[in-house]
Design goal:
11 helices; 2 domains; FAD/NAD(P)-binding domain; alpha+beta; 25% strand; three-stranded antiparallel beta sheet
């Protein structure tokens, strides 16, 4: 959606395909980081974004036996010293509304790209076949950008296989009502045998139970009451509200993957975002790296497209060269944290009560000046992108 807006804004005929009929899917990445807030500002969308329902988080805390303790502090970041928790469907709708101002832009809902089209003479990918409620549709294009996520259909169709970097955990997402007497922060709740994350969404908690990789079937085969009891032991203030969780159907599994393609492009085809590099949920950076990818892509490919040229392989390879370093660095930090913090916590010891913060993060509890370091890493990232693609006047 961001790349579609940037290309349309530059005056390039652009088609965005969305296989669903709307954007209303729960438990997507809703953390909008300062790097993305800066992009929205550069596009003149920040004021409209600020009107969306959201919670601003200036510190992330861990909930220990003796109460909440801050470990990440965004307050020193400028100009946006916070994370914004915004329903992703609202952000996508904002981008769609802005893109619709350009007559050469079109968004096709309920249009799933299922197969690539390759020119038999040149070997270049030149379009996609899509499935729609009214039948199959062929769309020709000078460039296809696969933004279809970690289970990318187009990536599979192109015969590309990402390198799996490993993840020791999966995540069970669910909602719990938030009551007046509840704490006001956004928390991680460490414990032996698991880890709980509580995102404050105003009138409810968006909760994530981190479980060992592949353990979802066993966990969800147990009575739901056992699961709720384990959550209540970690966060006793949720005991009453957990009664609103009536069925396992209300608990959604996120199979965590950390991987990346060795090559992001083929002739006429480019992959960005999770289709190129699936991120761990650690730090909530996936959406923000994807948006940085989109900005870098528009900055690089807008000029040749405006000149009537099909971006060649060296041009497409520039996107990967530009974005591979921040991808590697971020995934490196995530896999290190998975290995040092998450994996030991997932080793069951017969209790899931809150435990002391792991030793790797004790310095963050002791020295408040260090808490801005992870805030800068996850909030701003590496090699920040800025909108440099041109802006075409709307007729």
């Amino acid at each position: 959606m961001m790349l579609g807006l940037l290309l349309a804004r530059a005056g390039i005929e652009t088609i965005v395909l969305e296989k669903h009929g709307d954007f209303l899917r729960d438990f997507r990445g809703d953390t909008v980081h300062p790097s993305t807030l800066q992009i929205l500002d550069e596009l003149g969308l920040k004021q409209r974004f600020d009107k969306l329902p959201q919670q601003r988080v200036s510190q992330l805390e861990v909930l220990l036996a003796d109460g909440p303790r801050p470990v990440i502090d965004f307050r020193k970041l400028k100009p946006y010293p916070y994370l914004a928790l915004v329903p992703q469907w609202d952000l996508l709708e904002l981008l769609a509304q802005e893109s619709a101002h350009y007559p050469w832009y079109s968004l096709h809902m309920q249009a799933e790209a299922v197969r690539l089209i390759r020119d038999e003479t040149s070997g270049r990918f030149c379009g996609v076949h899509t499935q729609t409620p009214s039948g199959n549709l062929r769309i020709n294009a000078d460039l296809i950008v696969g933004c279809d996520g970690r289970q990318s259909v187009l990536r599979h169709a192109a015969g590309l296989q990402p390198q799996n970097l490993g993840a020791p955990m999966d995540v069970l997402w669910f909602r719990v009502p938030r009551s007046a007497g509840h704490p006001n922060g956004t928390y991680g709740v460490p414990g032996s045998g698991g880890f709980l994350v509580l995102l404050n969404r105003g009138d409810y908690w968006q909760a994530a139970a981190v479980i060992p990789k592949g353990d979802a079937a066993r966990t969800m085969a147990q009575p739901l009451s056992s699961f709720k009891s384990s959550i209540a032991r970690r966060a006793p203030f949720l005991s009453n509200e957990l009664e609103s969780l009536l069925s396992w159907d209300e608990v959604k599994l996120l199979e965590v993957r950390v991987d990346r393609l060795q090559r992001w492009n083929q002739p006429g085809l480019l992959f960005i975002g999770d289709a190129a590099h699936a991120m761990s949920p650690i730090g909530g950076v996936g959406i923000n790296l994807a948006i940085q990818d989109a900005v870098a892509t528009a900055n690089i490919i807008a000029a040749p497209l405006l000149a009537g040229l099909q971006p060649d392989e060296p041009t497409l390879a520039r996107v990967q060269r530009r974005r591979m370093l921040p991808t590697r660095l971020t995934q490196g930090i995530q896999t290190t944290l998975q290995h040092r913090l998450i994996a030991p916590a997932l080793q069951k010891t017969g209790t899931d009560k809150p435990v002391e913060m792991p030793s790797l993060l004790k310095l963050l509890l002791r020295w408040d000046t260090l808490r801005s370091i992870p805030a800068r890493i996850f909030g701003l990232g590496f090699r920040r992108e800025h909108v440099r693609s041109p802006k075409h006047k709307i007729p």
